[in-house]
Amino acid sequence: MASVQSVLDQLSYGLYIVSSCSDGRCNGQISNAVMQVTAFPPRIAVSINKTELTHEFIEKSGLLSVSILAQTAPMSLIGLFGYQSGRNINKFADTSHIVSPRGCPIAIEHCVGLIEGRVTGKMDAQTHTVFLADVVDAKAIGGVPMTYAYYYKELKGKAHKNAPTYSGATSAPAAAAAPSAPATPPTKVTTPPSSSPSASYVCDVCRYIYDPAKGDPENGVPAGTPFSSLPDDWVCPICGVGKDQFSAMK
Ligand SMILES: Cc1cc2nc3c(=O)[nH]c(=O)nc-3n(C[C@H](O)[C@H](O)[C@H](O)COP(=O)(O)O)c2cc1C
After folding, report:
1. Which of 30, 33, 129, 244 has a CA that sits 20 to 30 A from residue 227's CA?
2. How many CB atoms within 10 Å of residue 87?
3. From the CB of 119, is ligand 1 less than 6 Å away?
4. H or E segment at 53?
């Protein structure tokens, strides 16, 4: 008999940047849980984890935008908006975006369409809030939309513990899965110190730190394994990118 989660995993999703604003500050996050709920009026729903800064901003402003990601969206963009928190960095500092007349930021890089909504209702779903928003503006850009399946199969992305679809079954343990960047980002060096087997490496996408002293026992890498000795097919236990997307730390 299939588990409940394995059946729910057959549901289809896209990938989006959901953004909002508060007191002149802009922030956004990756979400897969976005859907249209009615056509008359045009209305969407998004499910946002209560711990996220974007949740706080949507609550405060009653505004949100949805940028529909294209298949061309790189892991670096998904990592920035999906594995780092606006509490530590300004995600829009180097991301092309517009700000609507109502003050809501809307990411435009690698997007096929843009939607802005005004919150008209919400439902408490324990870990998440489901926000209902009436569409106040929408713009088509064009291209092929990113699906969640494409993110998994082609980009080798992983489920995020704050996504409403995350069950924990196939993902890294909670301790390793802390998605937020440290308050002070780790310092990277451009040339890996090959002479230092004890050097830690940071994932450029999600900021996971590989510490040789700890290894990655969950994935068969014993403590004491230098980064250079990791198998070629080892991937970041948090976001799934390969070793080539790691940088040595001082
Ligand atoms: C592929 C993917 C899908 C995600 N889907 C959701 C989602 O639907 N809802 C949600 O609340 N968080 C989701 N997240 C997690 C947030 O994007 C993540 O926690 C983000 O860092 C929150 O940023 P913030 O604190 O700046 O708002 C997802 C992350 C990824 C990588």
Report:
1. 30
2. 13
3. no
4. helix 53-61
Q: Which residues of the chain have pLDDT under 50?
A: 170-193
Sheet holding 34-38, edge to edge: 25-31, 16-22, 63-69, 111-125, 128-140, 43-49, 34-38
In sequence order, which residues have a C-beta less than 8 Å from that of residue 93 and are 6 or more positions away?
A: none
Q: What 3-state class would DSSP assign to 242?
A: strand
| CA gap 13, 35 in Å, rounded | 9
Identify the three-state secondary structure at position 9.
Answer: coil
Rounded CA separation 29/101 (Å): 21
Rounded to the nearest angstrom, the gap between the alpha carbon of residue 201 and the centroid of all alpha carbons in its chain is: 20
- For ligand 1, whether the C-beta of 48 sits within 6 Å is yes
Q: How far, in Å, CA of 88 to CA of 99, rounded?
A: 21
pTM of the model: 0.85
Determine if ligand 1 sits within 6 Å of the CB of residue 32.
Answer: yes
Question: Residue 7: what are its φ and ψ, rounded to 5°?
Answer: -75, -45
Q: Please count the residues of the chain.
A: 250
Question: What 8-state DSSP symbol labels residue 235?
Answer: B
**What does the pLDDT read at residue 168?**
80
Residue-wise pLDDT tens digits, 214-236: 999 999 999 999 999 999 999 99
**DSSP reduced 3-state for 66:** strand
Ligand 1 site, residue 79, Cβ cutoff 6 A: no
**pLDDT tens digits, 34-82:** 999 999 999 999 999 999 999 999 999 999 999 999 999 999 999 999 9
